[in-house]
Amino acid sequence: MAVARKIAYNVFVSSVSKVLSTALALVAIGFITRYLGKEGFGNYATVLAFLSFFAAISDLGLYHIATREISREGADEERILGNIFSIRLISSVAVFGISPLVVWFFSYSADVKIGIVIAAASFIFSSGYQILNGVFQKNLAMDRVAVGELAGKAVQVVTIILVVRANLGFNWIISALLLNMMVNFGIIYFLAKKYVRIRLRFDFDYWKSFLKESAPMGIAAIVTFVYFKMDTILLSVLKSSADVGIYNAAYKVLENITFFPGMIAGLVMPIMAHSIFANRGRFVDVADKTFKVFVILVVPLVIGTLFLADDVIRLIGGAGFAEAGVVLRILVFALAFIFFGQFFNTVLIVGNLQKKLMWMLGLAALLNVGLNLIFIPEFSYMAAACISVITEFTVVVLTAGLVARKLKYVPRMEKFSGVVFSGGLMAIGLRLMTGLNFFILAIASSAVYFVSLWIFKTISLSEITSLISKKGVQEYDELS
């Protein structure tokens, strides 16, 4: 299959699978919020924040650097993945072992502490399949990962529904996450064997050299956790579980959308890694079109959320989480900056500037924690939401500046006015259709936006699929 067609197929299947996974995740959140209430959902969010903490401290930068390395010409995939898989297995088992000691120092309830240990167990499986994702990225087969994740999410949602109906309690809700990760790992591991033989390797000299290279990204993962999830933990310590629940009812909606920038960046990362030094024109072409896709996705997300936030919260959490509507309107701007932060982070990684990236993220993390410690005690989740926006904006400014200075690249976008005009028509449509059913509003306003893009020829399907143009097909086919 030609590379351009393969990219288009991956984008389509991955997008459909991810949209379905997101829908299932929102269904799960709806059941959980109504079953647990504000305080219980706050405890649930606290457990998931610790899962992110475990992922951060054992990340070690393995995933991004492994993906980059196996995408290099002449890479020994079996050796790379065998060693990285071994490192990740040891680090995740170590995290599971120390998790009871970590939670001992917090004054959480017994249910929350047990839930955190269960989350640590689920990380053993999630960390394993995340490493294997690099195989699918390199082979332009992320559609298989998306389908595997969809299957795992379906199992989780069915389990949650059964738990709620049987009234089995908080930790059975957490156990559904463990089951999801086990299913994901099993499917991804089986599918990855088509591309590479996977077996544990213990080449300690290679471990040393690889970890030296990946350490900056590992530190960056910890730093990212600090400004991405520490607000939830600080809320759980400084305020009530109900405050955590309100904040995360809004945050979870956005969290389930962030797969878009990660998915797109994952698809183009091997291409940019191969071309950034070997073919500057190809790199700029792919990067500019990726940036344009991000802009086109961000505009309707922001406009739609500003108009429909209350309806979204009412649909997801019920009447008990009404306060989360204003939080969602604030956080959607953080989501917008996350898209562009992901873009510039990816460019820095493929440009071998992960050490510089670490320092940029470190500054953002210090800003985030400092502001949260100052303002959360008085302003609670409203402060956390505003500080998230400030932090993500800071990340974009710092990383964009670094890309411009070190890699001499500034994204350029044609027909930006068409995107702005289409967004304006979408906003007018939402204003005029106020009072209609939420689903009608969401579908009709999205149709207005994307039809407007097509009418004004702002973007075309051929432009998206040409992220790999004919000029680069042969060289990437040889690479893969």
Could you give a short description of this structure?
With about 475 residues, the protein is mainly alpha-helical. It is built from 16 helices and no strands. It is globular and about 60 Å long.
Describe this structure in words.
Residues 467-480 have low confidence and may be disordered. By secondary structure, the chain is mainly α. The two termini are 12 Å apart. It contains 16 helices and no strands.
Question: Which descriptors apply to this entry?
Answer:
single chain, 480 residues, mainly alpha, 16 helices, 84% helix, 0% strand, disordered C terminus
Secondary structure elements and pairings:
Layout: H1 3-57, H2 62-70, H3 77-104, H4 110-138, H5 142-166, H6 170-192, H7 204-238, H8 241-255, H9 259-275, H10 280-317, H11 324-350, H12 354-407, H13 416-432, H14 438-455, H15 461-465, H16 470-479
Helix pairs in contact: 1-4, 1-5, 1-7, 1-8, 1-9, 2-3, 2-4, 3-4, 4-6, 5-6, 7-8, 7-12, 8-11, 8-12, 9-10, 9-11, 10-11, 10-13, 10-14, 11-12, 13-14
